Amino acid sequence: MHLQDIIQTLANLFSYLVMFYVIGIYSSYFILGLISAIAMADYKKKNSFVDYRSILSSKFAPSVSLIAPAYNESLTIVENVRSLLTLHYNNYEVIIINDGSKDNTMQLLIEAYELEKVDFILSEHVVTKPVRGIYKAKNPAYHKLVVVDKENGGKADALNVGINVSVNKLIACIDVDCVLEHDSLLKLVKPFMEEDRKVIATGGVIRIANSCVVEDGRLTHVHVPDKFIARVQVLEYFRAFLMGRMAWAHMDALLLISGAFGMFDKETVIKAGGYNHNTVGEDMELLVRMRRLMYEEQTPCKVAFIPDPLCWTEAPQTWNILKRQRNRWTRGTAETLMLHRKMILNKRYGILGLVSLPLWVLFEWFAPLFEFFGMLFFMCMAIAGYANWLYFFSFFSLIYSFAIMNSLFAILFEELSYKQYKRLTHMLKLIGTALLEPILYHPVTVWAAVKGNYDLITGKKSWGEMTRTGFVQKGK
Amino acid sequence: MGKFYKLLNIFAGLPETVDMILHISLSFFAVTFVVFLFIIFSRIKEGMQLKRQKWLERESQEFITSFLFDEEWTGERTALFRAKTLTTTSSRQIFLENLIRMHKNIIGESSNKLSVLYQDLGLYQHSKQKLYSDSWDVIATGISELAEMGMRQDTELIRSFIKQSNTILRSEALVALVKLEKDVPFSFLNELSEPLSGWQQMQLAKASHKAHFVLLPEFKQWLTNHEESIVVFSTRMVVQHAQHKAIPSLIKLLQHPSAEVRKEVIIALRQLEASEATESLIGIYPAETKENKLHILKALPIITLDDTFEFYETVLRDSDKSLQIAAARALIKSGGTDFLFNIKNDLQHALQSVAAFVLDPRI
Question: Per-residue pLDDT for A473 more than 80?
Answer without folding.
Answer: no
